[in-house]
User: Fold this.
Amino acid sequence: MTAPPPGSLGQPKAGAAALARRITAFAGVPFLSLLAPFIFLPVLARLAGADVWVAIALGQSVGGIAALVSGLGYSTLAPPIVAVASIEERRRLLATSLHVRVPVWGVAAVIAVIVAASLAPEANRAEAAAMAGAMSLAGLAPTWFWIGVGRALPILWSEVLPRTAATLVAT
Assistant:
């Protein structure tokens, strides 16, 4: 009796385990970046007061909207395109995305900074503006590219660490 070929129904546990690891990596790594504000904001509210907390939360919200606008849908539309593209096409897609998104981000970030500063409590406008600018940078993150090429670890250094650092600096 011979062993079933790799990837056949004779090896369901190995395939299921690999799939579970990939799902955990792709869901878990971005989830870490979402946890940072929930860890730091309650500490900030306790140490600095409600006005600072409001300014930081406002900056995160407005910056998140700017990131969504400046992302131009790449996070939704591009991963399957990258997945089937050649290496040269992938490079071109990434470069083109930056050429298109950077100018949009520049406008969206400036608007976000102005909106956050104008809505924040007067004593904490700088914090709100800084957080809005920092959070707007997520619109330039290459997360969609790493999902398309099937690599979760680079998302850690391109999204999670910068977002956590921005939250720490702003707090």
